């Protein structure tokens, strides 16, 4: 479009905002991302426009961050499947459902691509999802296929009747060897991608016991009474024993490199609950993936 006389001397971002009905912030984003030119040249957002200049603006189509993209994901294993539920072994690097800022593979996208029917209960991007695992956490999880299963399982997780068992390899040696961490968790005040123990947080309870003690680290079995985001990672870091490899929560990068880890050593090994249709108590397990097994073996062999 040609810059009209009425916008003479305006900043480029202000001119774009007025001419195209955009916010100044959106206009500035378009300039910074290279979608704007003035007389064929890329401007700075603070440059001024002159009447008669040719303003070229490309406005990319908006992408829905919650849209489910069907995509088969290598490494997702089906542990159990029936009319009510599907139980999977989630690999590292896979999110459970779409979210803003995440462009990688998702469990929901894989199940849709593989032809699984999932419950329609819940928000569109996480239909059938009754629990979540972090992108960097692997292991067993259950997804609801029927509406009844979603309702029953969601309530079971809410009532804390689901047995969630994790194994975590943490730095050092917790004292006592077995114990309970009862400390509220809230979003970190300075880093919105992290969580921390804070008095105004949500009630969070983690039980742990030692399975193996090695020179540099301890293998713990962890049972969650609550299910807060990053709960085990935050509680272990609060004890000054972060999960090995968990750089975000203070793990030693030298030790992480030594054992070949690029993510936290944390794995959901067992999940037990009352089957939503039969009422039978069921339990499903997941073995350690190769990267976690290698790291543990390395520490076992350390002298």
TrEMBL record:
Active site feature: 134
EC top class, as a word: isomerase
EC number assigned by the record: 5.4.99.-
A biological process from GO: enzyme-directed rRNA pseudouridine synthesis
One Pfam family recorded for the sequence: S4
Top-rank taxon, per record: Bacteria
InterPro entries: PsdUridine_synth_RluA-like_CS, PsdUridine_synth_RluC/D, PsdUridine_synth_RsuA/RluA, RluA_PseudoU_synthase, S4_RNA-bd
GO molecular function, one term: rRNA pseudouridine synthase activity
CDD domains, alphabetized: PseudoU_synth_RluA_like, S4
Span of domain RNA-binding S4: 10-66
Reactions performed catalytically: a uridine in RNA = a pseudouridine in RNA
Keywords noted in UniProt: Isomerase, RNA-binding
Alphabetical list of SMART domains matching this protein: S4
Family: Belongs to the pseudouridine synthase RluA family.
Function field: Responsible for synthesis of pseudouridine from uracil.
Name of the protein this chain belongs to: Pseudouridine synthase
């Amino acid at each position: 479009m040609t810059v009209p006389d009425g916008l003479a001397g305006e900043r480029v971002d202000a001119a774009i905002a007025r001419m195209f009905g955009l916010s100044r912030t959106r206009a500035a984003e378009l300039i910074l991302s290279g979608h704007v030119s003035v007389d064929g040249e890329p401007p700075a957002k603070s440059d001024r426009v002159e009447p008669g200049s040719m303003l070229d603006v490309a406005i990319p189509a908006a992408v829905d961050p919650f849209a489910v993209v069907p995509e088969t994901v290598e490494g997702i294993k089906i542990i159990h499947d029936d009319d009510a539920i599907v139980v999977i072994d989630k690999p590292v690097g896979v999110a459970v459902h779409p979210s803003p800022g995440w462009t990688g593979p998702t469990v929901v996208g894989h199940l849709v691509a593989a032809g699984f029917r999932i419950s329609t209960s819940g928000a569109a991007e996480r239909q059938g999802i009754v629990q979540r695992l972090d992108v960097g956490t692997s292991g067993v999880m259950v997804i609801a296929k029927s509406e009844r299963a979603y309702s029953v399982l969601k309530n079971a997780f809410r009532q804390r009747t689901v047995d969630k068992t994790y194994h975590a390899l943490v730095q050092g040696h917790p004292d006592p060897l077995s114990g309970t961490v009862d400390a509220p968790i809230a979003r970190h005040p300075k880093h919105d991608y992290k969580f921390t123990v804070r008095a105004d947080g949500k009630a969070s309870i983690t039980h742990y016991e030692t399975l193996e003690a090695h020179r540099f680290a301890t293998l713990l079995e962890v049972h969650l009474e609550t299910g807060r985001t990053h709960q085990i990672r935050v509680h272990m870091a609060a004890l000054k024993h972060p999960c090995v490899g968990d750089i975000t929560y203070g793990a030693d990068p030298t030790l992480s490199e030594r054992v070949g880890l690029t993510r936290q050593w944390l794995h959901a090994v067992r999940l037990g609950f009352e089957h939503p249709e039969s009422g039978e108590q069921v339990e499903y397990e997941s073995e350690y993936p190769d990267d976690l097994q290698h790291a543990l073996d390395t520490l076992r062999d350390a002298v």
